[in-house]
Amino acid sequence: MKKNLFRFVLLVGLLAGINWLASTFFFRLDLTEDKRYSISDASKQLLNELDKDITINVYLTGEFPAGFERLESATRETLEEFKTYSNGHLFINYSDPTEATSEEQRQKQYLNLVDRGLTPTNVFANENGKRTEKIIFPGAIVQADTLSVPVQLLKGNKASTPEEQLNQSYEGVEFQMASAIRLLASPQRKKVGFIVSHTKISPARLSDLLASVQQHYDVFLDMNNPESYDGLDALLVMKPDSAFSEDEKFKLDQYVTGGGKAIFFVDGARVDSVSLEGNYAQPLDLNLNDLFFRWGARVNTNLVKDLNCAEILLNIGNVGDKPEIRPMPWRFFPLLNNFGRHSVTRNINAVYTRFLSTIDTVGGNANIKKTPLLLTSAYTQTVNAPALVGYNEARRQPEPSQYKGGVKIAGILLEGTFTSLFQNRILTDDPRFKKFRSQGSAGKVIICSDGDLIVNDFDYKRNAPLPLGYDRVTKQTYGNKDFVMNALDFMTDANGLITARSKEIQIRALDKIRIQENRKFWQSINLLVPLLLIGVFGGLRYFFRIRKFG
Length: 550
Prior knowledge:
By secondary structure, the protein is of the alpha+beta class. The chain folds into 2 domains: 37-185, Glutaredoxin, CATH 3.40.30.10; 191-501, Rossmann fold, CATH 3.40.50. The chain contains 12 helices and 28 strands. The protein has helices spanning 2-24, 41-48, 66-85, 103-115, 162-185, 207-216, 246-257, 289-295, 392-395, 480-492, 512-517, 519-549; strands at residues 54-58, 90-94, 121-127, 130-136, 139-144, 147-152, 191-195, 218-221, 234-238, 261-265, 269-275, 278-283, 297-299, 302-306, 309-319, 322-336, 338-339, 351-352, 359-361, 368-375, 380-384, 387-390, 409-419, 439-448, 458-459, 464-465, 470-471, 476-477. The strands form 9 sheets. The chain has an 8-stranded mixed sheet with strand order 8-7-9-10-24-23-20-17, with helices on both faces. A hairpin with a 2-residue loop joins strand 11 and strand 12 (278-283). It is globular and about 105 Å long. The two termini are 25 Å apart.
């Protein structure tokens, strides 16, 4: 009796000790190969530093096909991990917008979510030969006080298979949620400058990007011609079409040399419409060539023709007395669906470009790391400016043998310690000499060789801008905005939150044909084996009891 009592007291003491250790020393162990249940250190820091309550209302809940159930599970797992590190400041609610007392009430719920920034998705599924359709909202609303941010969870490259898109969305849950929380929790907003004084593009055609950036950053336009760009966290040069003066180039040079972050959206060739038959391309000199060369890149004065391209509406003839308008592949509008391995471009949709030029890497500066971000397909051809770009090009069937130019760089990231272009050129009696930096802190530069990448179309019938990256022909929105916003995040994110985009989850797909063929067999195994194991266990237990007690 005393021996049993001692064992009982020892067990209680051991359990109490384990409980005390667990409450004192916090740790979590993720044993999965791809660390799917872990979040980045930057996300943990963000959550640990929360000083206000944040509520996340998730609308991806209910009965879904298997792929969406996986995305729902990933969202729940990620948010539970978030909640663990939030010191009680994070609250999570789940609701199914399809549940309503009446169809009218359901439609009101749908419209409310659309007005708040969420996009619905139609889900089709075949279950036992029966086709079903359901509207879902794969998103969430993150709210703090009176401010709210919509989070679209269904993301990814639309050229991928549905399974791959869902997996890409799964990989992006942490970054999407953490970015929304950071936007609401951070009292200080980063400062982003836009150089628009060198472009003739109307503000309406830059409005979608400007509005998106303003949601996350304080925006400054260069209308007042500042003495320097110091104090800005990032600088965007927006499709310039006139040359920069030496003084303006000096300010760009000193900003980057001093550790600044700059993104250039520039053209290598100017394309002007000359007639209904086509356009004329001529070299565009922005007086930035020597600056880019010093940094280690060169934007060429050419145009890329790519077999992976967008379409334009073209009059290919007449049917009776009416013109026949058809969408035709326009190889001067490459679709960039080839990306460098970097968190900026991971899992984004293809990027829509118009009259793209190529970028070469030059120089041997060991202090500068060069990472291609945007790349063409391997089936390319280049046309050197000046050149006539005729619309008849779209009517002709291309010869694949003529498109062997290989992969071309269209966007490149330069990182490191930059040396000033004006080194040994600024004299001591120059007023700029006192603040001159020949070499400074580590900076970052992204150069994209298409200014139209950040230009949105405009719907003149509705008098409203169209989304950035929207293609009128296919009615599809490409990944232009995601690319620019990710690039800005990377440039201004001192804590490295964008590293959460690097998470990679392997798809371990099942063989659907074998599943269909062996469906009955595996259903029988799942049903009978547990019953058999219970029967064997019960039989053994009965046998040993009879043997022990006779």
